[in-house]
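S1.2 Input.
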Amino acid sequence: MNQYLITAYDHTDANGLSRRMNVRPHHLDGASALKKNGNFILGGAMLNDKGKMIGSVMVLQFETVEELEAWKQSEPYITQDVWESVDIKPFKVATVA
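S1.3 Output.
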């Protein structure tokens, strides 16, 4: 499978955090489905120095670029305008003994 590092920063408008919190259950449901399908490797929220969520990091894997694109089209943090910027890079999880 092809692995990807997703780094996404939230919008910083006055409603950004409340929008994130409203959409978060749907985002986590999607992450659970990705995990069940073997696409989710790890993920979590990025925090600022005050502990406030400001973005997300995910490592996902998909067989095809089309599957990655389908995820992007259905990811609630993208479709519901939580993330202002999303950077996706090819990634390889290290295998250690």
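S1.4 Remarks. Residues 16-36 form the longest helix (21 residues).
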